[in-house]
Amino acid sequence: MPFINTWNALQIRLRRGTVIRNWTAQNGFLGDTFTIVSVKQNYIEVDTPGAQNIQRIPQRDFQIVYNLWDDYCLGNFKRHEIRDRTRFSKYIISILHWLQNNCGGHLP
Q1: Global model pTM greater than 0.85
Q2: In 3D, which of 15, 7, 16 has the Cα closest to residue 92?
Q3: Is 21:33 a contact under the CB 8 Å cutoff?
């Protein structure tokens, strides 16, 4: 499916105040969480413990991770390799996993 379908699903399903659990393909849920602050046309903002500022995650960074998603989930692409492409990897991976779980196990 094209990335725009996934982005549109995030725009519809993700709401201010949603708490997202940190998740990685290798280790599953890691225990810490972050909260969605806003969902805008071109970015999503999150509030995370330990960060001094709200994190604004651009749509283009979501697309970077989306393009690697299947390989990442299969273990063919490591998180540190995604981290090298976007500093928001922790949040994006966890948000995409949340969306996947809320869409019947597949990204739209």
Answers
A1: yes
A2: 7
A3: yes
